[in-house]
Amino acid sequence: MIKMGIEGIFQKKGVKRIIIFGLIVLILYSMRSMINLILLTFIFAFLMDRLVEFTFKRVPINRRVLVLFMYTLIVGLLTFGLVKYLPIITLEISELIKRITAFYTQPHENVIINYIETIISNKQISAYLDNGLSFLVKSFTDISKTSIQVLIALILSLFFLLEKPRLKEFTAKFKNSKIAPFYYEIEFFGRKFTRTFGKVIEAQFIIAIINCVLSVIALIIMGFPQIFGLAIMIFFLGLIPVAGAIISMIPLCLIAYTIGGFIKVLYVVIAIAIIHAVEAYILNPKLMSSKTDLPVFYTFIVLIFSQNFFGVWGLIIGIPVFVFLLDVLEVTNKETPKPVV
């Protein structure tokens, strides 16, 4: 009787789903050394698939030709950008780090500046800045490893998109196999993951690009130095929901103070406030679903925990993963509107 009771528990759909989800997490944890490649491949494949589908609806040409053209164009632009601008960007990021370090090391008589320094040093913000700056420095100094990971991810995502119909057909064969129960749960989690994680990442990328462009225009008007380096920093921080805009203000205000005093800091605060308002009241409602409209408290809690557990990747994927878990737990039944591309 006890044995039958235990078997009955394990045959329940909810219990099987939890066990399989635990196995997936365990497998991903065992592959944590490859997590960069896995995430980059998924992000490239999802974003490029969205871009190809968007273009295919408006330019009805052969899908494979369109995929090859898109990848050739993007790889060509990346190669051109790396060859022409990488030395400039690396130099400018180094100059930015030196400028911010010099600001911290030199004594300040201003009470407000000293108070701000104390807040930055004592709060979680300093950890975000340290992680973000170290990530940028490591990425650009260890460019060979980063380039190889990006290249492999691009190749894998290219083959995925070229063979997408065939992959669907082949994968569907598992429905009638001996691991069919496992397949159906993987399919369930895969659909949820794509609908939430993928679309939130897509929206974050679009918002980060728009924020970066608007911020760079404002910084050029205000006469900031090292624009390329600042653009890279703003883009990566823009991938962090809500907190990114706040964190980006700190180095920008420090640089503004060194080049123009408090009046320049005021201009930066006003510019960032306007851009943040555009993000909060125009971009977010159009691009993000109601699922991702989390209270600011929840957002910061998720970012703090994900940053501590996963480092820089946690800041970028923390909110999408949390939204995915909410969807799996059916915390909300509202459907996710399609992002405007």
N/C terminus separation = 57 Å
Give the % helix: over 70%
Strand tally = 0
Order of helices and strands: HHHHHHHHHHHHH
In one word, what is the shape?
A: globular
Low-confidence stretches: 335-341
Q: For the report, how would you describe the main beta sheet?
A: none
Radius of gyration: 23 Å
Number of helices: 13
Characterize the structure shown:
It is built from 13 helices and no strands. It is mainly alpha-helical and about 350 residues long. Helix 10 (about 225-240) crosses helix 11 (about 245-285). The model is unreliable at about 335-340 (pLDDT under 50).
What features would you highlight for this structure?
single chain; 341 residues; mainly alpha; 13 helices
Question: How do the strands and helices of this protein lay out in sequence?
Answer:
Elements: H1 2-11, H2 13-30, H3 35-58, H4 63-105, H5 111-122, H6 124-141, H7 143-162, H8 164-171, H9 180-221, H10 227-238, H11 243-287, H12 296-310, H13 312-328
Helix pairs in contact: 2-9, 3-4, 3-7, 3-9, 4-6, 4-7, 4-10, 4-11, 6-7, 9-10, 9-11, 9-13, 10-11, 12-13
